[in-house]
Amino acid sequence: MESTTLPTVQLIGSVPLNSTEEVFTKISKELPGLVRRLPDGEVGERNAYVLWQKDIFPPEIRSSDFVPESSQYDPSFKLKNDDVKPTGYDTAALASYRVFKELRSQGKIPSDMRFQVGLPTPMNSIACYVAPVHATKAEEFYEMRLLEALATIQESIPASDLAIQWDMASEPGHMEHAYGKRDDFKILKPYYSPVKEGIAARCARLAAAVKPEVPMGYHLCYGDFQHAHYIEPHDLGHLVDLTNAVCKAVSAHRAVDWVHMPVPKDRTDEAFFSPLNKLDIADCTTLFLGLVHAHDKLGTRDRIVAANRALEGRSFGVATECGLGRTPVDDLGSIFKISREVTLQN
C-alpha cells in the first residue's frame, strides 16, 4: 500500500535541552523544512507539564491523589475569583518569542516558521492539584486566568507568527473512565458529566478565544510520567470519539488545524488503529500520529503501515507520543533521524 504520510512533523512541546535558544536552533537544524511550528521546549520550571501551576491555587483547595494534601486544606473553603492567581503562561511565551524573533532575524529560524504556544486545558491543572469538591469552581476561575494569558499572548505576538496548541492529558483518561469502565488511575476520574459533551463544550469555549487567523490544534495524551501511560488504551476508539466531538463543537467558532494522537511503541497491530476509519474531521485538519519512538525505525514504519490501512487514503503527519521533556537527551538524535527518514522517504 502506498504511504500517505505527509512531509510534516509535529513537535508537541517539551524538549530536554537547557535553553529556549538551544531548542529553536536544534529543531531548525535537525528537521529542516519538516516543521511548520516551533515550540520553545518548555524549559526550566515548565518541563513537567502543569506541575509548575501548583501555587496558582490556594492551599485550602489543594488535595488530590497526585500531591499530598495541603496542611491548610479545607473542604468548606469558599473559593473566590481572585484566589486563583495568574498562570504565567503569557510571561513565558513572550520571553520565548523574543528569542524566536532574534534567531529568525539571524537566519537561524526559517522566515515562514510560526511560534507554537502550548497551553493546558484547565481541567489538567485541576486534576493534578484540586480536591473534587472544589474542582468545578476552581476550573471556572482557572479558565478565566488562562484566557487572560491567551489574550495577552495574542495582543503581543502577531497572528502571522503564532500558533496555539491545547494540551489534553486528562481528557483521554476521563473518556476511559466514563466509557471504557477503567479505574486504573483514579486521579483521572471525571468530576463532571456528561464527559464527552463536557469536554467538547469546554474546548469550544476556549477555541472561540483564539483568533481565527491563528492556527490552532490539539494534543491528546495518556501521559508520559516515568515513560509510561497512566492508562494503556485498548485502541484509538476513545480518542477518535473525543476528536470527532471536539472538532464538531469547535467548528461553530473556527477551524481545527491539527489533532495529535499518541501511539504506544508496542502497538503495530491493525486492531489498535482500526477506529481511525471512523474519524470524522474536516479536510483542513491535519492528523498527526505519535508513532515515532527512539531507536525503532522498523517499528515506526510498521505503525505507519497499520495506520495507512485504517485511514484508507487519508494523509497524516508524524510525531512522538508526547512531549520530549522526560526523554534522555541521547535519544533525541534517533528521534529526529527517524522523523526525517519516514517523512522524506514517503
Any overview of this molecule?
With 346 residues, the chain is α/β, with parallel strands linked by helices. It has ten helices and eight strands. It has helices at 20-30, 89-105, 122-129, 132-156, 170-179, 195-207, 237-250, 270-273, 297-311, 332-344, and strands at 5-10, 37-38, 114-120, 162-168, 216-220, 258-262, 286-292, 316-320. α2 (89-105) packs parallel to α4 and α3 crosses α4 (132-156). The mean pLDDT is 92.
Compact overview of the structure:
The chain is an alpha/beta fold and 346 residues long. Helix content is 38%, strand content 13%.
Low-confidence stretches: none
Beta-strand portion reads 5-15%
Q: What value does the Rg take, in angstroms?
A: 19 Å
- C-alpha termini separation: 11 Å
Structural class designation: alpha/beta
**Count, helices:** 10
The arrangement of helices and strands along the chain is: EHEHEHHEHHEHEHEHEH
Helix content: 25-40%
User: Quick check: average pLDDT?
Assistant: 92
How would you describe the shape?
A: globular
Largest sheet: 8 strands, parallel
**Looking across the biggest beta sheet, what order are the strands in?**
1-8-7-6-5-4-3-2
In total, the number of strands is 8
